[in-house]
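anyone seen this seq b4? input:
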Amino acid sequence: MVAFAMNDDLSWEVSKRAICVIGADGNFQPVEGKLATVREDNDKVLGIVGDDYEVVANSDLKKLIQPLVDEQVLSISNMGFLNGGKKVFVQAEIAKDYQVVGEDYRGMITLLNSHDGTTTVSLGSTMVRVICSNTFTTVMKKLTEKYRHSEGVTERLLSTTAIVDYVDGAMRKYSEYAETLVSAPCSAAQFKQAVEAIYGKETKDMRQSFVDQLNNLFYNGKGNEGKSFYDAFNAVTEHAAHYSRKTKDARMNYAQFGAGANTNRRAMAVLTEMATV
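predicted toks r here
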């Protein structure tokens, strides 16, 4: 059974300490190139890492969502550690249900980290609650934003806007752009031009099934009639949310955190520019 602690406030931190062995002469000899990660509150050794390994503090992990918690946009629903602190997790729910292309979600923002050198720092959205090592591994595989524990990882992690972009996009639904796209007519030729600009290649170089699917969504997707640039935008986002991956979790991550999120943002930029010409 894996030691598990839920609803821990993760107020403890981790430091790196030198490792020594007892030589044949009875004296301590340092182990070069290796350090131990140790819980500062109880001196428990969590792992052995290289000397270039950078610890990501529990407090820094929580900083990623704390402003949104303070604003009551997110609510922490699950937080704790496994194996005495070797792995830690924080999960927070968006304060209300919302829709992504017609589907209702109340997904959790999930932050995962390890202090034993076995995983990256990872973040994203999932419907799976972390309750044991198996669910930790399952969720880790689904998350798309990952940061290695190399020099500067904390700075890179704290500078990410992925969570804010995700929550903000889900809550606002691109509303400030919708009216422009809805009111601008889009022809079949313009949709083809938009698809090529969004995906960065000519349609003749894309899989025909993919092109056919996008065209079908443009004309027959949820609420679409193949008439406006908003129909074009919905075709792209509906593909990301419903057809890009096999599972709902995977589609959610792809559309909101992964390459699909970048495609959706590029689609909004391309289509807004075309609609205002």
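The chain has eleven helices and eleven strands. The two ends are 62 Å apart (CA to CA). kinda curious what u guys think
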